[in-house]
Write a structure and sequence with these properties.
It is built from eight helices and five strands, in the order ααααααβββαββα. It has helices spanning 8-15, 48-63, 67-79, 84-93, 96-102, 109-117, 148-157, 193-199; strands at 121-123, 126-127, 140-143, 167-170, 175-178. Strands 2-1-3-5-4 form a five-stranded antiparallel β-sheet, with helices on one face. β4 (167-170) and β5 form a beta hairpin. α2 packs across α8 (193-199) and α5 (96-102) packs across α6. The longest helix has 16 residues, at 48-63. The protein is globular, with a radius of gyration of 18 Å. With S5 and S12 plays an important role in translational accuracy. One of the primary rRNA binding proteins, it binds directly to 16S rRNA where it nucleates assembly of the body of the 30S subunit.
């Protein structure tokens, strides 16, 4: 399944707030559609499959990954010791596009992906143009010197966003570092990762 490139508010109306996808706020709380809110189905209980699918879609759209990538991450999480759901979130948090976003170098993960694709981001002083690159502990993320002026504008705009405890940042030099694996409480999206693991239990 290809990466979603359509209207982002349409996704927010269906799945709720996704800070990695967009900072826009949605006034309408019901899913998009030509008939508006469906009165007959409001308050109706969702099936177990629908609940699990919704949580999986939250993860996909927030981090901007494809279905194939997410399945690969679930398989990798299952091979490690510990809670599969938490390990899955930690893997997604170590993606370079997510770290660039969490450091405040870009307003959203799609914007961070564009910075990386265009060669503005360095990892350990080496240019990396792969958004899905998985960073390791003690990796240093920096910005190309000629690109610092417009990235500082993003930092000024979103300076109110708190820096996660597993990351370190020098905003003057536009340098960040991965200190440790991301603790569960620092995950930026409201999600039940156990339902995601259950969704893939028969597929992976």
């Amino acid at each position: 399944m290809a990466r979603y490139r359509g209207p982002r508010l349409r996704i927010l109306r269906r799945l709720g707030e996704l800070p990695g996808l967009t900072h826009k706020k949605c006034e309408r709380t019901y899913p998009a559609g030509q008939h508006g809110p469906k009165k007959k189905t409001q308050g109706a209980k969702e099936s177990q499959y629908a609940v699990r699918l919704k949580e999986k879609q939250k993860l996909r759209f927030n981090y901007g990954v494809t279905e194939r990538q997410l399945i690969k991450y679930v398989r990798a999480a299952k091979r490690r010791k510990g809670s599969t759901g938490e390990i899955l979130l930690q893997i997604l948090e170590t993606r370079l596009d997510n770290i660039v976003f969490r450091l405040g170098f870009a307003p959203t993960i799609p914007a961070a992906r564009q910075l990386i694709n265009h060669g503005h981001i360095f990892v350990n002083a080496k240019r990396v143009d792969i958004p899905s690159y998985l960073c390791k502990e003690q990796d240093a993320i920096s910005v190309k010197e000629s690109s610092r002026s417009f990235i500082k504008k993003s930092l000024d705009t979103f300076s109110s966003l708190s820096l996660p405890v597993h990351l370190d940042s020098n905003k003057d030099n536009l340098v960040g570092q991965v200190k440790t694996a991301a603790p569960r409480e620092t995950i930026g999206v409201n999600i039940n990762e156990l339902l995601v693991v259950e969704y893939y239990s028969r597929k992976v």
